[in-house]
Specification:
Length: about 130
C-alpha cells in the first residue's frame, strides 16, 4: 500500500520540473493518485501539446498507482463542497481529499489553500 497520495498539482510539478518537484520525486515510485487527478494530469499534458500516446502513459512512467474513483469517494467529494467552496477547491481537489480521508493518507500538493482546511487529512505542501 502506498504511503502518500499526490494531487494533480504535485504530479504536474514533477513533470514540468517546477519548484517542489524534488519533494514529489522522493515519493516515487509507488505514490497513489486518484483516477480523477490522473485525468486532470493527462488533460493538462494534452493542453501543453503532449502527444496523446505519451500523455496516456504518465502513470506507468512515473510509477504512480492510480486509485479508482469509487461511489463512496464521489459522495464524500460532493459533501466536501460545502466546506471547501469558500476556498475554491475543484472537483479534482475534493476527489483527492475524499480518497485521502478514506485511506488515511497524507496528501502532497502545491495548493496552499488546503492547509486552511480541518478535514483530518495531513496536507504536505511541496513548495
Amino acid at each position: 500500500m502506498a504511503d502518500v497520495l499526490l494531487d494533480a498539482s504535485a504530479v504536474l510539478a514533477r513533470l514540468f520540473r517546477e519548484p517542489g518537484a524534488e519533494r514529489v520525486a522522493a515519493s516515487l515510485p509507488g505514490a497513489l493518485v486518484s483516477a480523477v487527478n490522473y485525468a486532470e494530469v493527462v488533460g493538462k499534458l494534452i493542453d501543453f501539446r503532449t502527444p496523446v500516446e505519451a500523455a496516456a502513459v504518465v502513470a506507468s512512467d512515473l510509477g504512480l498507482v492510480v486509485a479508482p474513483f469509487e461511489a463512496s469517494d464521489a459522495a464524500e467529494a460532493g459533501l466536501l463542497r460545502a466546506v471547501t467552496r469558500p476556498l475554491g477547491l475543484s472537483l479534482g481537489d475534493r476527489a483527492c481529499l475524499a480518497l485521502a480521508r478514506r485511506l488515511d493518507l497524507p496528501v502532497l500538493t502545491a495548493d496552499r489553500a488546503w492547509v486552511e482546511l480541518d478535514l483530518g487529512v495531513e496536507v504536505v505542501l511541496i513548495r
